[in-house]
Amino acid sequence: xxxxxxxxxxxxxxxxxxxxxxxxxxxxxxxxxxxxxxxxxxxxxxxxxxxxxxxxxxxxxxxxxxxxxxxxxxxxxxxxxxxxxxxxxxxxxxxxxxxxxxxxxxxxxxxxxxxxxxxxxxxxxxxxxxxxxxxxxxxxxxxxxxxxxxxxxxxxxxxxxxxxxxxxxxxxxxxxxxxxxxxxxxxxxxxxxxxxxxxxxxxxxxxxxxxxxxxxxxxxxxxxxxxxxxxxxxxxxxxxxxxxxxxxxxxxxxxxxxxxxxxxxxxxxxxxxxxxxxxxxxxxxxxxxxxxxxxxxxxxxxxxxxxxxxxxxxx
Length: 315
Hints:
It comes from Schizophyllum amplum. The protein is an alpha/beta fold and 315 residues long. The protein has helices at residues 9-32, 85-93, 96-110, 116-120, 159-163, 176-193, 210-218, 220-226, 278-297, 301-309; strands at residues 148-151, 156-158, 167-173, 199-206, 235-238, 258-262, 268-273. It starts with 8 loop residues before the first helix and ends in a 6-residue tail after the last helix.
């Protein structure tokens, strides 16, 4: 019986090499024809360019802040009378425009988290807009809403009666950083006009959280030590709910301070919020001087001047 003889391994190797060479030759001939498209190699990234994972993405802090593009305030003239819940519901439900505003308000509140204001302080220190360089025109300006609070002397006061007839720089405070913002912004203006009889500075320590409001009321004596004695009657501690007034007055972040320049007719003529810029400090002083000069030339100002300068016994 004859055994089958296997071909040597070199024969298989030579056959395989011949097939590979023939296939390579046919492909090279096809690539040499002008009609066949040649595949393009992908572009290589320069060796000096950093990888995409290390490229810094733009953040809100890198974007410049927009200027204030609208008049702040409410359209209705404020009063000291408090609107009841029934009257407010009737005003909303019986007015189509009120229903639309209520819907927009609920959507804004639903989309805002509890820590959003604190997180936004990482970008521009919580500042969301830049104050204008000039005062808002009187015919375009809106009214500052009424805020009720208790002064350091224990009197219940309203901003509507306090600010009427005088040019007022009003500071809304809620945190320690807001006090720093307000002090830096208003210091040059107070140094220039604090002695003027038709000028005043009103500070409102606004604590909408009931627990924080209770704690602030416990430390009223400590606040008295930091506020000058002549300003005790103009420093209010308030727990008023500003839920429906924050957006009209431009109070976008509760953690920063806001300063409003209010004329004798309770209209907001200028406003700023957050860490003040040098241009904003100069603008507040300039706008305050303009409003005071205009109010002095008005014959009606003489009546308010006499009431302010009259001693308490004569009143």
